[in-house]
Amino acid sequence: MVQALQSVVSLLLGAGVLILGNGLIGIVLPVRMGLEHVPTQISGLVMSAYYAGLVLGCLWGRGIIVRVGHIRAFAAFAAVVAATTLIYPLWFNPVAWGVWRAIGGFCMAGLFATIESWLNLRSSKETRGQILSLYMVTSYLASTLGQFLVNVWDVKGIELFCLGDMLLSLSLVPVVLTRVTGPDISHTVPLSMLRLYQISPLGVAASLGSGLISGAFYGMGAVFAAAIGMSVFAISVLMAAAMIGGLVMQWPIGWLSDRYDRRTVLLWVLIAIATICMIAFTISRVPDPTRWLLVLTGLFGGVAATVYPLAVAHAFDYVERDQMVSASAGMLLSWAIGATAGPILASEAMAVGGVWALFLFLAGVAGLLAVFVRYRMSRRAARPAGEQAKFAPRGEATVVAGALDPRAELQGSTPRPA
Predict the structure, then answer these.
(1) The whole model's pTM is what?
(2) Overall CATH class of domain 191-394+406-418
(3) Which residues contact 108 (CB under 8 A, 6 or more apart)?
(4) Which residue from 214, 289, 226 is spatially nearest to 43, judged by alpha carbons?
(5) Per CATH, the architecture of 8-180 is what?
(6) What digits encode the pLDDT tens for the residues 352-403?
(7) Cα(358)–Cα(224) distance, rounded to whole angstroms?
């Protein structure tokens, strides 16, 4: 582990600082819009724009990296993100914010792809799993700390945006000083969504549903909290609780999914999400719901964060090993599409049914996905636990690259039957 860490410490540092700055901006924007009483539908559009940019970055960001090289691409993406970050406080206009947010999402997809492909190059077959775990822990902890940085200055001032811009700019230093040439990623393209769906209908649907749930909560959670009168500090604790829960629950649920029918584990995870969200909706009548919200949000974040890695692991049960990297890219695209729609649909639900309807929306998505999981269980026999692909923790805070996944290491091995 120590040797693996030494080989990637500079890249992990750059990734951590990048995610720290991105996490800070990701909470400042919805809190500011909530305090300014921006309509929930508009806030939803602004927050979904980031994921829309992420989708475009997944499709076209790789081409820029291939054309100009990893270091130049990283510097260009970081410069654009830093520039757009400083525009936010200079011009409070939700429509313009949506445009800057989409540009930021596109560039962040390119930044993550650059870092993750470098991490893949720095890792060996023996250390790839450790490096993936280190990267995931780094991303979760940096995202969590980014939520608390919102308390350093007044949200309505320019200081927090300057701090976010400084962090995004500093992430350049350890990355651009690396002496390792970037790997060739020109041939890593996603499987077509149709082909991926034919191989694993549940994997694609669960990735899409995971994106809907994550995009809705992380896009509108802070807006909801501001609307019910929570302080900025309480909002930061609320969002951080979900992220800490997501980090903690990856391993126990992954352990279960490797030993039992993965679809059964996913079904119970979705039932847990729906139940937690329905309980959260009912506590709206409690005089002081903040304490209960923190507990429920931690539980929600813990189970919700495992839906996407469970979906990927299930799809990998049926994908040939030499297609796993491409399949991972396709699954990520499915997740990003769901995450783009999540804030928009959730904001509409909140506009119609009140801000607490956010939890009704989350419960509804989890419930519908659970029904589809049960349907797929009746259409295909369970794969024996010994033949399942191993679960690998994956963070939704970043765009974890399929090439870094240790399960995709064995090229040319016997294909898995579909």
Answers:
(1) 0.88
(2) mainly alpha
(3) 22, 50, 53, 54, 57, 77, 81, 399
(4) 226
(5) Up-down Bundle (1.20)
(6) 999 999 999 999 999 999 999 999 998 887 777 666 667 666 665 444 445 5
(7) 8
